[in-house]
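B., you asked whether I could sanity-check this one before it goes into the benchmark set. Here's the sequence:
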Amino acid sequence: MKTYGLRDIIGPIMVGPSSSHTAGALRIASMARKLFGGTPHAVTFTLYGSFAATGSGHGTDKALVAGIIGLEADDPNVARSFELAEAQGVAVETVWDTATEVDHPNTVDVVCKSDDGHSVEMRGVSIGGGAAVIRRINGIDVDISGEHTSVVVHQHDVRGVLAHISSVLADHDINIATVNLHRTKKRGDAFTVMETDDDVNPKVRGQLLDHPAILGARVIPAMSVTDGASVPVPDDAEDAFARWNYASGAELLALCEREGCTIAEAFRAREEALCASVGVAADVDAYLDRVLSVMDAAATTPIEHPERSIGGLIGGEAAKVTAAMAAKGERALMDPLTAKACIYALATLETNAKMGIIVATPTAGSSGVLPGVMLALRDERGYSHEELREGILAAAAVGYIIARNASVSGAEGGCQAEVGSAAAMAAAGAVTIAGGTPTQALDAASNVIQCLLGLVCDPVGGLVELPCQKRDATAAPTALICAQIALAGVSNLVPFDENVAVMDKVGRDMPMELRETARGGIAAAPSACSFCAGC
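And here's what the prediction gave me:
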């Protein structure tokens, strides 16, 4: 079970348009690059499932190339990755395999080759929200999440190899968190994968290779939790994290009652304990300041400077609604708060669709909902920057539960898992900054889940543009309505955890065509198919 932190739910900060298909794909390729030991001379990407069906529109191919040449998820040059790869002399081949069945819809095989014939084959899976795992290396099944620093050793399966590996790490005072041996057969080829609690310095690799049975060794640095500075791990780190950790809504409410805190305060303490347990500074407020800055730019720039999206389906909607509201004045159909939430959500999806920089909350396709609500409350109700921080932390507290116990991936659970989750998070955040109780915050999130239950994921042409943009714009006001209902003291018959479980089951019961494949729903309407040349 992945240990989700703040940056997994409110993040990544990334170039759009899709957290699972863009940021997640980039992360897979980045892990492949580290496993290979640098930039390859040639690389082949074979995409399957939803990756193959919608990857072109999501920029998956661009993201994979960006990762393999060393770009980060928030680098604006991701859109130019093919051009940059050519300049670096990297030969790229992309294969779109829509026929082969795979276990996970967001799957890609990566084959890296050097100019001297050395090659590495790897299978990666994007599991939602920008996270990814390595499932296979050179035909051998493995499981590498990137959550911890990983040491991956390719070896002959003979006696004494594991002892040698362990002794080398011990000599460098590196604590092994987990160790798994994956082999083709007894005495055959094998991979030992160790997750460590500590950074691994470059000398370790050379000393591992001193053993004649070891064929190769690579270090994959941790790619999650935080990018903060290294700090000593406190002696009571494990106890501190256990104190603030929770696995469900019921546990969160019990935690808040025990500690006398809000859900925002509980999640802040959990994040600080989580970061301390892995020896990095949490820097919660600094990260939230950057999040709010990126959100603000993404939600406001398109209003004054609209641009068409890469796919050509959207662009200028936020400016049009702004102008229409001004023209109608008091006779406009939306009040100023609802209008701002709608407009900011529209604008954020415009930024996302032109491969601008956004914050996945919890995904790129749903990135307009939380900023729509938070920034509208700032502008129309006067909530402060510090209060918005608390709202985002409360949203993260709820998003963590959904990600842990259900899914925030459209390919797994439909749009209810993306926009539905985002609106549930935003509703909880709004209740929290308005002074509501932890119970009311979870009631608000439950209201949203019930209202948006069954929402399908059907991007036209595989683009995170239509109907995604309008769903974000309508989900933001829905979050405010659900928050107000909860603040009024209207309770919920079905508790939050049961709503999450129902959402998970409904998502898994959806046919494949309604889970981000662009083969059903609005994407299959005649006009949509005409737009994308017979999809």
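One thing to flag: Residues 284-304 form the longest helix (21 residues). Otherwise nothing jumped out at me.
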